[in-house]
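Quick start: read one record
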Amino acid sequence: MSPTVFREKGYRFFFFSREESRVHVHVYCGDGEAKFWLEPEIELAGNHHLSRRQLKELEDIIEAHYDELKSAWQEHFGG
């Protein structure tokens, strides 16, 4: 199961169930995908085929939706 938290600018922000416990979000678009840690701070954890411009855009979107992402993580994983 991989619940979508939200979609913005052609990106899908989601979690994988039964994955590591460190808070993070996965992002997918037609060009590729990335994973960002949310704690202790927003940090790129992995990137597959996304440009630096796209990664910066994603970081900005994650910052804007940080509280929403954290709340969704807590709700989904019970933490």
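The chain has two helices and five strands.
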